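Quick one: structure tokens for this chain, please?
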Amino acid sequence: MSLNVTTVLYRVTFSQPFTGGNSVAIIAYEVQIQTKNGTWLIPQGCQSNAALVANRWCEITLTTLITDFQLVQGDLIISRVRSLNEIGWSLYSNVSSQNVSLCNVPQPPVNLPIRVSSGSTLTSIYIRLPEITGAFAGGLTILSYSIQRSRDQINW
């Protein structure tokens, strides 16, 4: 089982279970995520649907992990899965061995950008952006910045 992070989704991926030569088809899966207090919940879209059976993955939104599971930035996302055939539900898998920490969008910079006078011209300015790291970076590397200009601090 693995957990991959996209922009705002966490994807739990798992392999088809070993059947020991049993030819009974898997008809459903159930993925559970552990909440902050240790209980297990099933995220929406992570139980008994055709796409889950065909693809063996489900995606959970960042908002769901924060609101429904009470996880905060830096918490490990711990998952497990079980399968269903016509005989019944399997036991749950071991918890995922590839846990990832919950990440979030970066926070606004604490310090303002600094204008660098050398190299600035009438048509361009050079600025030094403050470094954003750790919790302020949302747990991931900052990929780009958006710089906006306002003459009245209302219209950007």
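The chain has two domains: 2-101, 105-156.
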